């Protein structure tokens, strides 16, 4: 009976806590720009038409057998093409160890466990700031964390010089966590030139780049263009790790479908690495779920459905880009003397607004606007209907 008496309630997740507070607020004016999930212009969750069509096609056709431990072979194959390229030599040469993962989180966690198992004394360098769960993931995998400079609060852009210094000053052969595109929470990505320099320096130092790509398609609207950082690293001859997720770009949040891949030196190494990834997964969840993977492989395996998906990704990105412009224009029209250029300079789902925790508290208390206290605005929660209200509230609390 005394088994769990020493268990204290866990600290609330900073992101999920915001949604709870939003749901509990009875105000008709309330706005949720906290959670990183896409919404349509009426603030409603979206199921993509390509997903609905895939579900119609597969309804009643599949059995419920276990997938292989590595997950759906077809889904993994299509997923690798998106990141490494349709005609990737690495795919052809079977140099990529890849398994279906429990979305992006599961891919990161599986890699962190793999890192810990085969490089138990290694460290992971994580950007400041980053998606808060990265810290939890590598902590629970018992990997020591270090940080590297990324965002510059003054310019609200990339702190490129400090980032490069940190890469140079890290011990040779360190692990670096990079957001492949649409950096969360800042919306700040390196330019193509900067990626080339980062790649060069990481190579020179013998570091291992691990990419988290949770938003492929959300930065530019085109998944192919959003893979450019990965392609630069591939061209430069890196071995790399990669987490992919269909939560955002296919709207499959709750289906938990993603992929972890590790580019190896040759096929033999890839076979060994894949078998070890499966061995890590076996005592955790045995094998991944079927349904989401089937939706993905149905869409990407069909030229017509894939085309529809690409159009819908572009549509989501365009709506967000439109809301960035609208939010900035509204703030400027209200006569705000502050610079709001970063709203349109930053890309992807988030705007790192520069609002202080106190200003965010005022937005919530006085205007029923919900976001994380780091000032991150999920642009996906901004709509034609609430952008004026949001701009006015931001203007009032930043006066
Ligand atoms: N990585 C980053 C940077 C994210 O922002 C997210 C989701 O917010 C994820 C990974 C993982 O998402 P999921 O596990 O839903 O694919």
Topology:
Blueprint lengths: L13 H11 L6 E2 L16 H10 L14 H12 L4 H4 L3 E7 H16 L4 E6 L3 H9 L3 E6 L1 E2 L4 E2 L1 H10 L5 E5 L12 H13 L3 E6 L9 H4 L1 H8 L5 E5 L11 E7 L3 H15 L9 H10 L2 H31 L7 H5 L4 E3 L4 H11 L1 E2 L5 E3 L8 H11 L2
Parallel strand pairs: 1-12, 3-4, 3-7, 7-8, 8-9
Antiparallel strand pairs: 2-10, 5-6, 9-10, 11-13
Helix pairs in contact: 2-12, 2-13, 3-12, 5-6, 5-11, 7-8, 8-10, 13-16
The structure holds pyridoxal-5'-phosphate.
What can you tell me about this protein's structure?
Strand 3, helix 6 and strand 4 form a beta-alpha-beta unit. The strands form 4 sheets. The protein has a 7-stranded mixed beta sheet with strand order 2-10-9-8-7-3-4, with helices on both faces. The protein is globular. The chain is of the alpha/beta class and 399 residues long. It is built from 16 helices and 13 strands. 45% of the residues lie in helices and 14% in strands. Helix 3 packs across helix 12, helix 5 crosses helix 11 and helix 13 crosses helix 16. The protein binds pyridoxal-5'-phosphate. The site of pyridoxal-5'-phosphate (PLP) has 13 residues, from helix 5.
């Amino acid at each position: 009976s005394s088994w769990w008496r020493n268990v204290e309630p866990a600290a609330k997740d900073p992101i999920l806590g915001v949604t709870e507070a939003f749901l509990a607020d009875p105000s008709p004016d309330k706005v949720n720009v906290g959670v990183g999930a896409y919404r349509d212009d009426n603030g409603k969750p979206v199921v993509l038409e390509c997903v609905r069509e895939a579900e119609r096609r597969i309804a009643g056709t599949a059995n419920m057998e276990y997938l292989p431990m590595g997950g759906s072979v077809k889904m993994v194959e299509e997923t690798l093409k998106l990141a490494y390229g349709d005609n990737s030599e690495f795919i052809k040469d079977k140099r990529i160890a890849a398994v279906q993962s429990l979305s992006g989180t599961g891919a990161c966690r599986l890699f962190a466990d793999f890192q810990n198992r085969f490089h138990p004394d290694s460290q992971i360098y994580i950007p400041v700031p980053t998606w808060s769960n990265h810290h939890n993931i590598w902590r629970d995998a018992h990997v020591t964390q270090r940080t590297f400079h990324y965002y510059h609060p003054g310019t609200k852009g990339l702190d490129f010089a400090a980032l490069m210094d940190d890469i140079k000053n890290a011990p040779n052969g360190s692990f670096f966590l990079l957001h492949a595109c649409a950096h969360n929470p800042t919306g700040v990505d390196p330019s193509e030139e900067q990626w080339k320099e980062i790649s060069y320096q990481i190579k020179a130092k013998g570091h291992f780049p691990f990419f988290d790509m949770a938003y492929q398609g959300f930065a530019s609207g085109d998944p192919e263009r959003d893979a450019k950082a990965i392609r630069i690293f591939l061209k430069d001859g890196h071995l790399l790790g990669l987490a992919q997720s269909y939560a955002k770009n296919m709207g499959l949040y709750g289906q938990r479908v993603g992929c972890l891949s590790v580019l190896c030196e040759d096929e033999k190494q890839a076979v060994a690495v894949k078998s070890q990834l499966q061995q890590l997964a076996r005592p955790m969840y045995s094998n991944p779920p079927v349904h989401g993977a089937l939706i993905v492989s149905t869409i990407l395996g069909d030229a017509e459905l894939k085309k529809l998906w690409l159009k819908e990704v572009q549509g989501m990105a365009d709506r967000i880009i439109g809301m960035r412009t609208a939010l900035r224009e509204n703030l400027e029209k209200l006569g705000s003397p502050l610079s709001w250029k970063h709203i349109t300079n930053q890309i992807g789902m988030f705007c790192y607004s520069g609002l202080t925790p106190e200003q965010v508290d005022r937005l919530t208390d006085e205007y029923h606007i919900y976001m994380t206290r780091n000032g991150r605005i999920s642009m996906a929660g901004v709509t034609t209907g609430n952008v004026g209200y949001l701009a006015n509230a931001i203007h009032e609390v930043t006066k």
